[in-house]
Amino acid sequence: MTCAEKLEAVFEGKLVDTVPFALKGWRIPQCEMERLLRNEGLCILDARSVYTVASPNTETETLTFNKDGARYQKTTIKTPKGMLTSLTKSLPAEKTENTTWQMEPLFKSPEDYAALEFIIRDRQYTPDYASFLRAQEQIGGDAFFKTTAPGAPLHTIMYHLMGLTTFSVEWAERRNRVLALHEAIVENERAVFSIIAQSPARVVQCGGNYAPEVLGKERFVSYVVPHWEEVTSILHAGGKLVGCHLDANNKLWAREIGESALDWVEAFTPAPDTDMTVAEARRLWPGKVLFINFPSSVHLEPASVIEATTKQMLKEAAPGDRFIIGITENVPDNRWRESFDTILKTINRFGRLPIAC
Hints:
By secondary structure, the chain is of the alpha/beta class. Helices cover 41% and strands 23% of the residues. The chain is globular.
């Protein structure tokens, strides 16, 4: 089976020859070691959008500049209701995926509500299925492609539009205005999910990165769970398999995840890095595909510990269906060669399906 066929089969709940080992995106450079790993079975789970976004009634200007070795990008959005700016920062790195920090969010004060709501309601979405199909055709079986969908709107407001400090103040003092923004996003993004439902993508990742220490149980139940309910009802009608990126501590809302209509969980990171093991996830989330993130801290350990950790996860995942050992975070340049090689060799030796308990 090709990489694409193997991953698709796992998402469909079918039993393959061995548990897949897959990178989320092209997280290692093209080199001799990368070629050897892929020849031995390393898979790639990539992503492409199936729609484009346009804002016909706003004007956006972007200024990029370098300062103290960092790259900054200042974005100015002009609307009939006012002008908003944001600032991001990124550092050069010899990696296939870089991290960008938000230095200044769009929303800075209560005077920005009108302009921000205008920006949200002005967004228009158009299907772009050709780009997805072209990526599949160009890569062939070397990678499996999912697509992405927006996550819970309240989380978008918290992290992307306001930032946590400002959100905390607004949630306490002007919650009605925050919820009006929330409703604007909900109404606007319904068009996105209808487009995705009719797209050629089979697997959809719908937002994520929910941290219980920040979001809290009450907001999770009130705003994330209803979002899942609406989105899965639309996407399931289009034959899609819907998942969420849940890489933080999940014990607080493990029951809600298990009872949800989600088909799969992306980036679930087991202990020792979070508060749940693979065995607990399998027990609490029956029937869901687990595309886990191999615990980041373990990459720093000797090969013997990496092998033992891999074997333990395989044992806990028995019989091994609906299970993918993945890498969803960047791994230090001086560790990925030994770590990935050890994980893959261990899977190829002990991860043949079905795995005995």
